Amino acid sequence: MKTTGGTDAQKRRAATAAVEAVEDGMVVGLGTGSTTAFAIRAIGDLVADGLDVRGVPTSFAARELARECGIPLADLDEVDAIDLAIDGADQVATTDGALVKGGGAAHAREKVVDAFADRFLVVADPSKTAETLSHPVPVEVLPSARSTVAAAVSALGGDPTLRRAEKKDGPVVTDNGNLVLDCEFGTIDDPDALATSLSRTPGTVEHGLFVGLAETVYVGTDDGVDVIEP
Ligand SMILES: O=C[C@H](O)[C@H](O)[C@H](O)COP(=O)(O)O
């Protein structure tokens, strides 16, 4: 799992605050990453105490952790609704709650689950917040479309880099069998417009801009939790 700038205590505080919204009988979207992992463990503790919930994992890693924690699981196509999704972010715009996600290459499934949920709660630490997004945007692409999508990203003013695996020669391959281009756009003044342009590019499976989706962002700090309600 990738490492981030925040401390475990900050991440745990954010996760604990978000998990307070989980109620008996809910279907809960389980995000991916080191911050959401604290939420998954906390939900596992509640399940051990008798809470009746079902989790819909957003990745292989989330599924594996949720299983270890004893959370009953369902696939997305087995549920009629998701009451609540809890997920992390690589960057959060404090002004409007727009996010960059996909540092763990899980953003395609995350976006489906987070967007489908009635409520989408984000958990983060202070190293993730910014007034304006500027984090490179991960774009999951069909392997055969790597160069055509890269050319389209360049035409949009971006600088795409194929994400390389750390303990394997060659690229990162997503849970869906695709590749990831990390696309540097500098400061993203209009995330909605960029999101639309990326979504329109043939060969793009999903990009990591989550615009207008987050209901509440919990930012764990050294002594509490800052709540952003965009
Ligand atoms: O693909 C991964 C996800 O979008 C994560 O939620 C995101 O990268 C944040 O992860 P972390 O909490 O480990 O910083």
From TrEMBL:
The active site is at E110 (proton acceptor). It comes from the Archaea. GO terms for biological process: D-ribose metabolic process; pentose-phosphate shunt, non-oxidative branch. Its EC number is 5.3.1.6. GO terms for molecular function: ribose-5-phosphate isomerase activity. Substrate binds at T32, G33, S34, T35, D87, G88, A89, D90, K101, G102, G103, G104, K128. One of its GO terms (cellular component) is cytosol. It is an enzyme of class 5 (isomerase). Catalyzes the reversible conversion of ribose-5-phosphate to ribulose 5-phosphate. Belongs to the ribose 5-phosphate isomerase family. Homotetramer. This is Ribose-5-phosphate isomerase A. It comes from Haloferax mucosum ATCC BAA-1512.
